[in-house]
Specification:
Elements lengths: L6 H10 L3 E5 L3 H13 L4 E5 L1 H22 L5 E8 L2 H9 L4 E4 L6 H17 L3 E6 L4 E3 L2 E3 L9 H11 L3 E4 L16 E2 L5 E2 L5 H10 L5 E3 L7 H9 L12 H9 L2 E6 L1 H17 L6 H24 L6
Helix pairs in contact: 2-3, 2-11, 4-5, 6-7, 8-10, 10-11
The structure holds glyceraldehyde-3-phosphate, 1,3-dihydroxyacetonephosphate and zinc ion.
């Protein structure tokens, strides 16, 4: 099948109490790892490209890589999504060049400006059969060139969501309930430590999610910044020359719970980066004589595939949903 939009996927996910993984793509190996895992587990999947990814790989390569994955796994429903589109122009470029879904992220602008730009994108995208995600509230952390310091993030205000969705006509809404971008989602002082000394972050604000659900029944909600920063991979990185002290993510059981509620799309990037890096670092340390990139990148790719498979089965619950 050709690339699809997320409309049908989200409807089934909402009704079925699971979520679709939206994994960031930056190169061939990452596309292969994600789509091979999705195919093996018979799971729909969203492949998303940020501005940084489009700059790094060139958007044409990314579109063609996804087309190649689709040719190899025609049975897997796949969406190609623009992650954090900065304005109408970027979204239009993606709508015009093969993406089936775009995000307009005007969340750092005023409510009225966010409505205006999101509506403009939705009108254009819908004319071309493409769906639109927008965001209300801001997450802490780093995305592309925007860094939101801890303390400057703001939770979504549930009382704004109906007006926002009605006036913009967007198809899904990213909300801020305590997730955060990157591998250092919380400062150690915001966390407690468990018996192993591992940081435990503050819980997600399920009260906000539930209030949003009441106001937007049946409407698909998106969670950004949802990497869990798996400690086993962080350990491999640190034991093989890396330095990632106090890296901390969102506990998987909280994401699992969100998937059973209105959350239909869960964004994961940092976990894949950590897995890839762990595989490469370990390979390099164990085989200092190797210099063929296929050898060490293959180990990184295998980790990414294992992480995506784990997310699909244990966190998202999207396995067998093709
Ligand atoms: O939300 C941010 C994503 O992890 C993309 O990160 O802008 O470094 O590609 P990036
Ligand atoms: P993580 O940094 O938690 O993987 O979040 C990724 C993301 O939200 C992409 O939009
Ligand atoms: Zn994001």
């Amino acid at each position: 099948m050709p690339l699809v939009t997320s409309t049908e996927m989200f409807k089934k996910a909402y009704e079925g109490g699971y979520a679709i993984g939206a994994f960031n793509i930056n190169n061939m190996e990452i596309v292969q790892a994600i789509t091979d895992a999705a195919a093996e587990l018979k799971s729909p999947v969203i492949l998303q490209a940020s501005a940084g990814a489009r700059k790094y790989a060139n958007s044409v390569y990314l579109v063609k890589l996804v087309e190649a994955a689709l040719e190899l796994h025609p049975e897997v429903p796949m969406v190609l999504h623009l992650d954090h589109g900065a304005d109408f122009a970027v979204c239009k470029d993606c709508v015009d060049n093969g993406f089936t879904s775009v995000m307009i992220d005007y969340s750092s602008h005023s409510f009225e400006e966010n409505i205006e730009e999101s509506r403009r994108v939705a009108d254009y995208a819908h004319e071309h059969g493409v769906v639109v995600e927008a965001e209300l509230g801001t997450l802490a952390g780093i995305e592309d060139d925007v860094k939101v310091e801890h303390g400057n993030e703001s939770y979504t205000r549930p009382e704004e969501v109906e007006e926002f969705v009605t006036r913009t006509g967007v198809d899904s809404l990213a909300i801020a309930i305590g997730t955060s971008h990157g591998a250092y989602k919380f400062k150690p002082e915001q966390c407690t430590r468990n018996e192993k000394g591992i940081l435990v972050p503050p819980p997600l604000r399920f009260d906000i999610l539930e209030e949003v659900m009441k106001r937007l029944p049946g409407f698909p909600i998106v969670l950004h910044g949802s990497s869990s920063v798996p400690q086993e991979y962080v350990k491999i990185v640190n034991e093989n020359g890396g330095k990632m002290p106090d890296a901390v993510g969102i506990p998987e059981e909280q994401l699992r719970k969100a998937s059973t509620l209105a959350v239909c799309k869960i964004n994961i990037d940092s976990d894949l980066r950590i897995g890839l890096t762990a595989g490469i670092r370990q390979h390099m340390a164990e085989h200092p004589d190797h210099f063929d990139p296929r050898q060490y990148i293959a180990d990184g790719r295998a980790n990414v595939k294992a992480i995506v498979a784990h997310k699909i089965k244990e966190v998202l619950g999207s396995d067998g949903k093709i």
